[in-house]
């Protein structure tokens, strides 16, 4: 099956522009045409369950926010072997996102650039859809700020989304790090983050785990400040990281002509690993981390776990790897654990960090 994707499926999809191919892929998932790739047991990879923030994950490999923005293929993605599905980013009011074209492949770099701009159907529609779904696995909901809402009113905007969506989520992720909504990343500044997480932690307490998604472009001091605030409000975990605005080291031609947007995929791998390690070190392992950025293989996933992540997510790796992606990563990850003498994911978390 993986061979067919490599030889035929990816070539056909990559002949289309990136957003059209994504929309077609979503239709294929919704229709059930991906059923030949379904895996009957997402826990059947010899990895054992992973317990984090009160949830039991059947395996550590999730699909990141941005792929299924409107929760239309949640169970189908779980059936492909993903241990959890994070839908969104969802905003309180629906919005169309930025003008097209707004999604671009960089095949030479195994990367994507997107400036989609939180295009989604809105919290009310997503909440209604999830309320009618018999969810097959763990579902997180990633929420963001509407583009036309000033940062001074961001807290109210996030709270409105949270209150509509929280009862339909196993966890809620707060997206303050997309580069594609003007000034959104300013919410990562100390005083803004303190206000936002203070308010959200109050309404989330005892209701649903709350996570925060941070950028890969923060300085070490900024990461430490974010960790301090997360610990202050007993935030349940950090997702590290979102896309980067950096273009360092890219080989693809005409990158400059693409313009603004967040870069994801292989070029983000080491930068994301560095953020994961900083969060893990500074929090002394007290904040569970979902590692995102450049996961294409089980070896990439293990790097993030060794850097301090308990769970990992992918988006671009799935685009390039196709429908067997989650299975392939989990199977290889299980092999690596066995080779290194670990009996569980938990034993491996943070083991790649040198002392000192």
Question: What's the short story on this structure?
Answer:
The protein has 356 residues and is of the alpha/beta class.
Plain-language structure description:
There is one protein chain. With 356 residues, this protein is α/β, with parallel strands linked by helices. The chain has a single domain (2-348), classed as Alpha-Beta Barrel (TIM Barrel). Helices cover 38% and strands 16% of the residues. It has 13 helices and 13 strands. It has helices spanning 2-14, 18-31, 74-79, 123-131, 154-165, 190-204, 220-232, 255-258, 269-283, 298-307, 316-321, 325-340, 345-348, and strands spanning 50-52, 55-57, 61-63, 84-90, 103-106, 111-114, 138-143, 171-175, 210-214, 237-240, 262-265, 289-292, 311-314. The strands form three sheets. An eight-stranded parallel beta barrel has the order 3-4-7-8-9-10-12-13, surrounded by six helices. Strands 5-6-11 form a three-stranded antiparallel beta sheet, with no helix packed on it. It has a two-stranded antiparallel ribbon with strand order 1-2. Helix 5 (154-165) packs parallel to helix 6 (190-204), helix 7 (220-232) crosses helix 9 and helix 10 crosses helix 12 (325-340). The longest helix has 16 residues, at 325-340.
- The radius of gyration is 19 Å
How would a crystallographer describe the biggest sheet?
A: 8 strands, parallel, barrel
Percent of residues in helices: 25-40%
Q: How many angstroms separate the termini? A: 46 Å
CATH topology: TIM Barrel
Number of strands: 13
Can you give the mean pLDDT?
Answer: 92
Q: Which overall shape is indicated by the principal axes computed on the Cα atoms?
A: globular
- CATH class, named Alpha Beta
Counting helices, strands and paired strands, the structural category is: alpha/beta
Q: How many separate helices?
A: 13
Considering the protein shown, what is the CATH homologous superfamily? Aldolase class I
Q: What is the strand content?
A: 15-25%
Q: Kindly report the spatial arrangement of strands forming the biggest sheet.
A: 3-4-7-8-9-10-12-13
CATH architecture: Alpha-Beta Barrel
Q: How many domains?
A: 1
- H/E topology pattern: HHEEEHEEEHEHEHEHEHEHEHEHHH
Regions with pLDDT < 50 over 5+ consecutive residues? none
């Amino acid at each position: 099956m993986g061979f067919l994707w490599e030889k035929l499926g990816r070539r056909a999809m990559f002949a289309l522009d990136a957003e059209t191919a994504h929309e077609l892929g979503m239709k294929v998932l919704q229709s059930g045409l991906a059923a030949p790739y379904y895996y009957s047991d997402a826990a059947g990879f010899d990895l054992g369950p992973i317990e984090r923030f009160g949830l039991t994950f059947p395996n550590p490999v999730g699909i990141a926010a941005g792929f299924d923005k409107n929760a239309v293929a949640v169970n189908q993605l779980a059936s492909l072997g993903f241990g959890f599905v994070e839908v969104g980013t969802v905003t309180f009011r629906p919005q169309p996102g930025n003008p097209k074209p707004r999604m671009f492949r960089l095949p030479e770099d195994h990367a994507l650039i997107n400036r989609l701009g939180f295009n989604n159907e809105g919290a009310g529609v997503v909440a209604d859809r999830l309320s009618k779904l018999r969810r097959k696995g763990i579902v997180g909901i990633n929420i963001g700020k509407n583009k036309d809402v000033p940062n001074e009113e961001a807290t109210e905007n996030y709270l409105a989304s949270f209150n509509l969506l929280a009862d339909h989520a196993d966890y809620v992720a707060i997206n303050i790090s997309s580069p594609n909504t003007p000034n959104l990343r300013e919410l990562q500044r100390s005083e803004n983050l303190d206000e936002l997480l203070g308010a959200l932690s109050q309404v989330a307490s005892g209701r649903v785990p709350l996570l925060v998604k941070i950028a890969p472009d923060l300085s070490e001091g900024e990461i430490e400040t974010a960790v301090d605030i997360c610990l202050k409000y007993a935030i349940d975990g950090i997702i590290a990281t979102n896309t980067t605005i950096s273009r360092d080291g890219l080989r693809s031609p005409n990158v400059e002509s693409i313009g603004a947007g967040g870069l994801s995929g292989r070029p983000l791998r080491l930068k994301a690993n560095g953020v994961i390690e900083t969060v893990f070190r500074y929090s002394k392992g007290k904040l569970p981390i979902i590692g995102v950025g450049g996961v294409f293989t089980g070896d990439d996933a293990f790097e993030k776990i060794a850097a301090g992540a308990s769970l990992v997510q992918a988006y671009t790796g799935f685009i390039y790897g196709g429908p067997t992606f989650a299975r392939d990563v989990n199977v290889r990850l299980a092999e690596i654990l066995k080779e290194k003498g670990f009996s569980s994911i938990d034993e491996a978390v943070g083991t790649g960090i040198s002392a000192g």
